[in-house]
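Bug #2210: token dump truncated for Nitrogen regulatory protein P-II?
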Amino acid sequence: MEICSIWAVSKTGRPYEGPVVKVASSGKGMVNYMKEVMAIVRQNKVNVTKEALALAGIPAFTCRKVLGRGKKLIDMTLLRNIVESGEIPVDTSGEYLSETTRLIPKRVFTIVVEDHDIEKVVNAIMEVNSTENPGDGKIFILPINENYQVRNGEASLDAY
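Reproduced locally. Full output below:
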């Protein structure tokens, strides 16, 4: 694998005078060895998710508090029954009605791993977060094209 320099030109057309960034290349362009796993999970599943990732050998991740909602729709029969009775039920059917526009607190884990670790990460997250109910979450896999260390500007193909 060869290392090539990227020389940037500013908007004025003059050469960039900052640090030179080294980019790892296979000789045929950039090779994507990494993926980002973005997992949206219930807020009460953060600790078990952290433990599952640690047991799977995934030491690095980011976890953020977010608000959002899924595609859950209202059952119109349920709505008619509530309108006729005049009160919202206390059971889960009342929750379905109140969630039509309400943003639900969730947590988003962002994990950058090498391609061969994707299955291990997804399985670890699904194993501890699945209750087989709507709202358990969603997992997205995204490509990572480049990776730079802020400290020294070095590019790397390593996930960590």
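Output looks complete on our side. The longest helix spans residues 118-129. Marking as cannot-reproduce; reopen if the truncation happens again.
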